[in-house]
Amino acid sequence: MVKGMEKFRTLFLEKFDENIIQINRSIKQDHFVPVEFDTVIRMFHNIKSDAGMMGFTHIAMLSRLMETLLNRHKSPDISLTGSDLVHLNGLTREVTDYFRQQCDTAITDSDDSEIQRLTDILENALEQDHEQSL
Asked: Distance between CA atoms of 108 and 57, rounded to whole angstroms?
């Protein structure tokens, strides 16, 4: 890696870590607090933008899917049940756990099968939400 880029990579990893911590603080162990949607959406948006600029497309893509999913659930047209919140919490935890793993390995090793699995789960959740809103 170009020496100057290493500095940006280090800064990205620090901010990436801070965003993951903020997301995990904003969600509770067994439920998702709707008031925290804006904070969590903003953190996924930040990760998406920063990862995209650094060329970490798999992280940017997963962040975009989470941001879209959470924005849909934030809509006043959708009423959330307790099980919806638990489901969102689980998806958010699963993605942030993957992000934590990526951060811990300095994004040197991405598992394509895990990326595909998470992408499929999030796209399926978005599709189900779309069908329910029709």
From this structure: 13
Matching residue, tokens 């659930």:
73
Q: How far apart are CA 32 and CA 48, in angstroms?
A: 21
Tell me the pLDDT of the chain (134 aa) as tens digits. Answer: 556 778 888 899 999 999 999 898 887 655 566 667 888 999 999 999 999 999 899 999 999 999 999 888 877 666 677 777 778 888 998 999 999 888 888 777 677 888 999 999 999 988 887 666 65
Report yes or no on whether pTM surpasses 0.70. Answer: yes
Query: What CATH code is assigned to 3-133?
Result: 1.20.120.160
